[in-house]
Amino acid sequence: MTKRKVAVAVSGGVDSAAAALLLKEAAYEVIGIHMRLWDSPRFNYQAHRAENICRILDIPCHQVDLQEEFESCVVGYFCREYQQGRTPNPCVACNQHIKFGLLLDKALSLGADYLATGHYARVEHSRDGHRLLKAVDTGRDQSYFLYTLTQEKLGRVLFPLGGHSKDEVKQMAKQARLPTATRSSQDICFISQKNYGAFLSQRFSTLPGDIVDTRGKKLGRHRGIAFYTIGQRHGLGLASGKPLYVIRIEPESNRIMLDHEEELYSQKLIARKLSWISGKAPREPITARAKIRYKSKEAEASLFFRNDSVDVHFAQPQKAVTPGQAVVFYNADEVLGGGIIDSDAIGA
């Protein structure tokens, strides 16, 4: 019987290296595929590490240049969102358009049956379709970033690490003499040391504007709305007193509105640009667990559906609901779907 062929997205880190190792041990025909996304010393070093990992594992290594597409679909999107007063999650966009879009297409064109990555998540297959599930190691679970996967794509992807803990992954990589260094999953890969302000200021010009309270009283001046996000407390340049937080960003008037912490809480939001793992939006209201950002805790919520949006009503108010971030819906360990939090649809 012919071996099943899988292309592993080898990034140069420990997780993708371990994913390739596990699949090779499971008797797949494994090839490595590395994305060149950005021209920088850091990305060039990762390409070198990816090639080294493939040599150690004795598998072919294919380099795929996706810099132009990454600039358009991820970096450009990231900048446009900040310019409009929203706070995007570029990893969601990268997974949707680059890794499980263009890279998956490239893997299939190389004759692979599957594309595998080092994500901590699981896929369950049945006659009724494919389900996306959280990883066994819930502290490392990355299913939040994968809610845009379709049924067709889930049938073509593998997540070998979904049943393993991070400690197990590091140990198996060490035993195989694979590089074990890794970077934080919270880093944005194309920005050094989270220096968003410097990066954005190189991409577009920003105009200073007023910082106001909820009554419209001027409190100070801001550097440009792109440098601020909902819930921000520090770096506002105001005199000390009772702490104030960014509660609203108004790109039309180029204003930032501040208030006290209690005003950061919202009990509802509207999400748009929806994706559902099953391929079909629920027809009737449902109760689910919702995450309003990657590191937030899930919160019980009721979902009410419209043609192109969903109203999310939380059982308990949520802090710093942020336009541009993804909200992802779960039923226990299963990802139902998600969408992007709308700028003008957050309230008490």
Spatially, the strands of the biggest sheet line up as 12-15-14-13-16-17
Tell me the span between the first and last alpha carbons.
60 Å
Strand content: 25-35%
Assembly category: single chain
Helicity level, as a percent range?
Answer: 25-40%
Could you report the average pLDDT, rounded to the nearest whole number?
A: 93
Q: How many helices in DSSP terms?
A: 7
Derived from helix and strand composition plus strand pairing, the structural class reads alpha/beta
User: Would you list the SSEs in sequence order as H and E?
Assistant: EHEHEHHEEEHEHHEEEEEEEEEE
For the largest beta-sheet, the strand count, sense and barrel status come to:
6 strands, antiparallel, barrel
The Cα radius of gyration reads: 22 Å
Uncertain runs are: none
State the shape: globular
How many extended strands? 17
